Amino acid sequence: MLTCKLFGWVSVTLILASPSGIALAQAVPTSDTQPSQIEEIVVTAQKRSQALSDVGLTVNVVNAEQLADRGVVNIADLAVAVPGFTAATNSDGTPIYTLRGVSFNSINFGTAPTVSVYVDEAPVPFAVMSEGALFDISNVQVLKGPQGTLFGQNATGGAINYGVAKPTDAFEAGIKGTYGRFDTLIGEGYVSGPLTNNLNARLAFSVTDSGPWQQSVSRDAQLGSQKKGAARLLLDWRPTDRLHISTNFNGWFDHSDTQAPQFVVARPSVPSAVDPQLLLIAPTTLNARSADWDAGSSFRRSNGFYQGVVRTDYELAPDAALTSLTTYGHVGINSFSEHDGTPLAIQSVRTGSLQGGQWFVSEGLKAGDKVVVEGFQKFASGDVVDPIPWRSTRTTAGSPAADAQKSPAP
């Protein structure tokens, strides 16, 4: 299927399936064959499968078809599908999620977010870890309002749970992509099917590549390239009728450029203490693409994340089940950001060699449709829990510190 949109984007989708799998296309039911009942929506907002109409919470559910129809390719695009939700980034590129106006703008990567994120109920404790989560998704559940520790961490604004597409009993494969302005290429693909009689697997990936979009006003230079990738491997093992073990190994990398700000005006408190060149710089707000940054510096990120999740469900009796969820996530951040918007080395911020990980273990006993026993444990390690995980250096152009501030933080 080839679709050309009016604003210049091209979308290509290809799906492959075995004869016993899902057909390439299905006819839309006519008014004579369309069922008269409303389709039931099943959610896990209370850590068990329930009909949305039976959940006494404010929940927005968006399935995979709705995400595709509305052009949702990243977390920021969820705003077009979920009322009251917005996503932005701070000056260092850390995601900031807002629900019903509740958010927390912090430059610290280790700050607990006001909107928590989960992938199949497994927590993603810090917002910076969730950048590559939105691909090969079956549905997105957004819980609005204050949340308790039902899934392991509380939040004042709400929670987002990504339901990933599961391994299938029959072979399936698919690939899709979009191409647009600044040579932006976004591609996704997956392969799913059985490995043995009781073991199914699914491998999915996502890539984003684009050229620079910011233009320097002082020289022939450009900034703003995107180089991102993510992958996820799911294994679904059912050795017995009572035992179900599922694993999720996922990760992403981000080698994109950081964004340079636009310079408006310089108003130093002590004019005699600054380089005279600063007072001669004209505003760079000519258009949205105009900006400026330090010459000779690399603004390429070197960020990455990986996570492993193991979930075990054991049926003790027809109405009793024991569930264990264990996850470990590790993030590494290394980036250099321009903060003054001029070609002079005045102020820049380097986040260097920030490493950290967190273990999360959850056990629960469910009787009927209620969770009667539950416990959580968290173990954190690394600088990700450091309240000051970056160093900012202010320098004056031409001073010895101007070169030192371009060196990685120890």
What this model shows, in words?
- With 410 residues, this protein is mainly beta.
- It has a single domain, classed as TonB-dependent receptor, beta-barrel domain (Maltoporin, Chain A, Beta Barrel), CATH 2.40.170.20.
- Helix content is 3%, strand content 46%.
- The protein contains three helices and 24 strands.
- The strands form five sheets. Strands 1, 2, 12, 13, 14, 17, 18, 20, 21, 22, 23 and 24 form a twelve-stranded antiparallel beta sheet that branches.
- The radius of gyration is 24 Å and the shape is elongated.
How far apart lie the N and C ends? Answer: 51 Å
Range of helix content: under 10%
Instruction: Give average pLDDT, whole number.
Output: 75
* The number of domains: 1
The CATH H-level homologous superfamily: TonB-dependent receptor, beta-barrel domain
> Largest sheet, if any?
12 strands, antiparallel
Number of helices: 3
CATH topology: Maltoporin, Chain A
Order of helices and strands: EEEEEHEEEEEEEEEEEEEHEEEEEEH
Instruction: Point out poorly predicted stretches.
Output: 1-33, 368-410
SS content category: mainly beta
**CATH hierarchy, class:** Mainly Beta
Strands, count: 24
CATH architecture: Beta Barrel
Q: What portion of residues belong to β-strands?
A: over 45%
Globular, elongated, flat, extended or rod-shaped: what is the shape? elongated
How large, in whole angstroms, is the Cα Rg?
A: 24 Å
List keywords for this structure.
five-stranded mixed sheet; disordered C terminus; 46% strand; 410 residues; Maltoporin, Chain A; elongated
